[in-house]
Amino acid sequence: MRVSSEEELAEAVRDAGGPLRIRGGGTRPVGRPVAGAALDVSGLCGIRLYEPGALTLVAAAGTPLAEIEAALAGEGQRLAFEPADWRGLLGTTGEPTLGGVIAANVSGPRRVQAGAARDALLGVRFVDGRGTVVKNGGRVMKNVTGYDLVKLMAGSWGTLGVLSEVSLKVLPAPEAAATLAITGLDDAAAIGAMTAALRSPFDVTGAAHGREGTLIRIEGFADSVAYRAGRLADLLATHGAAEILRDAGRAAEIWRAVRDVAPFHDRTGDVWRLSVAPTAAAALAARSGADEVLYDWGGGLVWLLVQAGSDLRAALGDFAGHATVIRAAEETRARIAPFPPEPAPVAAISAGLRARFDPRGILNPGLMG
Amino acid sequence: MDMPAPDAARIAGKGALGAALRAVLPEDAVISDPAETRAYECDALSAYRAAPMLVVLPRSTEEVAAVLRICHAAGVPVVPRGAGTSLAGGALPTEDSVVLGIARMNRVLEVNYDDRFIRVEAGRTNLSVSGAVEAEGFFYAPDPSSQLACAIGGNIAMNSGGAHCLKYGVTTNNLLGVTLVQMDGTVVEIGGAHMDAGGLDLLGLVCGSEGQLGVVTEATLRILPKPEGARPVLIGFRSNEVAGACVADVIKAGVLPVAIEFMDRPCIRACEDFAHAGYPDCEALLIVEVEGAESEIDEQLGLIRQIAMRHDPVEFREAVSQDEARKIWLGRKSAFGAMGQINDYMCLDGTIPVSSLPHVLRRIGEMSAEFGLDVANVFHAGDGNMHPLILYDANKPGDLETCEAFGAEILKLCVEVGGCLTGEHGVGIEKRDLMEVQYAPADLEAQMQVKDVFDPLWLLNPAKVFPLAASAARRAGREHVPGALRPRTPAGYFGNEEGA
């Protein structure tokens, strides 16, 4: 079923006789496989309001991300959280939508400096499991009027409500960027270098380590970028010689590859992601037995390529943080909880919220476990 | 502003409740003498006062859990209190409630510079969090005006902001984890040193919930390396409109100052009389602060100067020394004190889209004439968070009521132009009855059902945030919520709230 307005969406949910599988662009099949009738919201489309001087944009949830990014680029602005495109990673086609990005809370390398998708989200309109339209937040940057359901909706994967409209804080795109690359560091040494960079006052907007070496990104006005690149190279000298990449096109390509986890695109195996304190990352990755590792967020986000069907949580044992399956066969995602199991009191709260927002249990039921 | 009538049965049970609390807390942690409980009768919204039955001052998460278990069993409302600096009445007690103060829980538990976080007890003051990491060149970004006194627990409850959130965000953007004690005494760990939620973003939900979902006892906060330097400029303009246009142009040009503060003529005058900061005599002024190394600051300020010049400023003053920088901020930082010298005032907190600034300021001026009360405007212009200060005379009968009516009209105007009732102070009791201006019944219902999940008996800070009529049934324990495991009668010894 395809809906093209909020009213139609509300009606479709209200009239649903059973579980619904919510679908935006269909590019992020993550979580437990959901049995249910497809509800396609990509027809909820279009930018409703864009005020570059106020750094805010409001759009229907099904609006293609590409359309949003093009509109922003036209005004020299962008989504600071750098949403990833998972089509290559997950082998999907279709158009990523803004609502999908928000529902999955997908944030790229700049998350270390500019925050996650949820941090840029100012307001939502959604349809809950009863078919009721609910709004929360708004289109202003500071808003503490009532509870923050905006954050709750980000990363809830359509299980509490179906997004119909979102409003976002956007930011100016910088005039210049530079990337420092150090090669030859092992994982622990790379974490050390990234930590040194992120502890500095030089406003690092990306810190990653993988095939391309250890990468540090800075952005801003041209003179400022040049100054900070020099200072960072000096600061990192004890960790390794840093080459400063000034070719904007090449650097953009490198960071897009980190963002989209490109090294794992053409490799077989399951993909997991760990969210951990950066200094714990290298030891965990070593313990995981992964075939390849990509560190982002200075080590706070670890992408692991592991043997198909294996249970990474069993391999890692207890650790502070969590592990999520992003890519695996349906059979594996049915057998191993893709989302991290929650301790009992947290699970009770999550279950309570689902029971209130979706009393019939029809919105992507079971997707998050 | 109404509060629910105190429950006589609860008050009659004060002695038994005090004894039960003393059995689990040290002697000095339970206050029952009316002469002492009076110190907790209000917060910074001091027009409203009610001394609580009892005050408890626990020193650990375990003690907080013990207190809440006892009050839960007794069916007694609990009002959590940080430092009592809420401008919205967030910590206002009722006479049949227990105030749970977390001020004694103020230790730093862990600092990790490599992973860039600090874990503190929630009673620690905002400024002392930065103080604890300053020597290593770090700071905690949210900086509410009350930062010398206000507690992190209160900051989390209200999702506090500050002058520098244009760049660094507000509390919710700088919070990594909390230890939360639910009303029934259940201790929940949410988040940690890692960055993202594994499941639903409960941390985002708890932040800004005004102490209604649980009592936060510990918090893990993101700390940031301090920039190499910062420098403000002061720009004077011929009109509010021109100043507003300049703000929009600066933002559009790609400069992201850490702060853009706006003051109108009445505010400039009052601050000047009070602080003698040497502000120019003009209709509106902006204080714009940028950060970085000297050369970076020069680059950004050069661009800001270019933009400002297009708006024909009456003054463009760049601080060339620390002392001049201090003087530029001096007037702004003393704005509230300056107003307090002249008058009683009510400080509003609505946020508007930046583009509506000139229209809203003009309307406020017109309304000021209609209501016969003066207004001074000072606010965070970059993010549209207004702080109109309405001046009134507390000793003049009817003046407070006129002031509140005027304030309500300003907040309705904020909502009308696409903004909201409160940007950083919270709803508390102050904006509680205006919530229906911003939210439809279904929107409020969605929020109230979140409270049903965390606090099914509605005992934590119950008469705040939602209009009393909207929450009455729940507070009285009458609402039927499908699928809820919800005891309708507390298994206590005082009977039900509001005389079930």
Task: Looking at this protein, list some descriptive labels.
heterodimer; A: 369 residues; alpha+beta; Uridine Diphospho-n-acetylenolpyruvylglucosamine Reductase, domain 3; Alpha-Beta Plaits; 3 domains; 14 helices; 17 strands; B: 500 residues; Uridine Diphospho-n-acetylenolpyruvylglucosamine Reductase, domain 2; 4 domains; seven-stranded antiparallel β-sheet; five-stranded antiparallel β-sheet
Assigned CATH architecture of the largest domain in chain A: 2-Layer Sandwich
CATH architecture of the largest domain in chain B: 2-Layer Sandwich
Protein structure class of chain A = alpha+beta
Global structural class of chain B:
alpha+beta
Chain-averaged pLDDT of chain B: 92
The count of helical stretches of chain B stands at: 18
Largest sheet of chain B: 7 strands, antiparallel
- Cα-to-Cα separation, first versus last residue of chain A: 25 Å
How large is the share of residues in beta strands of chain A?
15-25%
Total number of helices of chain A: 14
Distance between the termini of chain B: 24 Å
CATH topology-level name of the largest domain in chain A: Uridine Diphospho-n-acetylenolpyruvylglucosamine Reductase, domain 3
Total E-strand runs of chain B: 18
Rg of chain A (C-alpha, Å): 21 Å
Helix content of chain B: 25-40%
Outline the structure in words.
The complex is a heterodimer of chains A (369) and B (500). Chain A folds into three domains: 6-172, Uridine Diphospho-n-acetylenolpyruvylglucosamine Reductase, domain 3, CATH 3.30.465; 176-259, Alpha-Beta Plaits; 265-335, Alpha-Beta Plaits, CATH 3.30.70. Chain A has 14 helices and 17 strands. Chain A has helices at 6-15, 65-74, 87-90, 98-103, 111-114, 117-120, 149-153, 187-199, 222-235, 248-259, 278-288, 312-316, 330-335, 344-357; strands spanning 20-23, 37-40, 47-51, 56-60, 77-78, 121-128, 133-137, 161-169, 171-172, 176-182, 204-210, 213-220, 243-245, 270-275, 292-296, 301-306, 322-327. Chain A starts with 5 loop residues before the first helix and ends in a 12-residue tail after the last helix. Chain A is globular, with a radius of gyration of 21 Å. With 369 residues, chain A is of the alpha+beta class. The model of chain A has no long low-confidence stretch (mean pLDDT 97). A five-stranded antiparallel sheet of chain A has the order 3-4-8-6-7. In chain A, strands 11-12-10-13 form a four-stranded antiparallel sheet, sandwiched between helices. Chain B has helices at 8-12, 14-22, 34-37, 61-74, 126-133, 152-158, 165-168, 202-206, 240-252, 265-275, 294-309, 322-333, 335-342, 357-371, 399-416, 435-438, 441-454, 468-475, and strands at residues 30-31, 54-56, 78-81, 98-101, 108-112, 117-121, 138-139, 175-181, 187-191, 215-222, 224-225, 230-237, 259-264, 284-291, 315-318, 344-347, 375-380, 388-392. Chain B has 18 helices and 18 strands. Chain B is globular. Chain B folds into four domains: 8-101, Uridine Diphospho-n-acetylenolpyruvylglucosamine Reductase, domain 2 (2-Layer Sandwich), CATH 3.30.43.10; 108-225, Uridine Diphospho-n-acetylenolpyruvylglucosamine Reductase, domain 3 (2-Layer Sandwich); 230-336, Alpha-Beta Plaits, CATH 3.30.70; 343-426, Alpha-Beta Plaits (2-Layer Sandwich). In chain B, α10 (265-275) packs across α13 (335-342). Chain B has 500 residues and is α+β, with helices and mostly antiparallel strands.
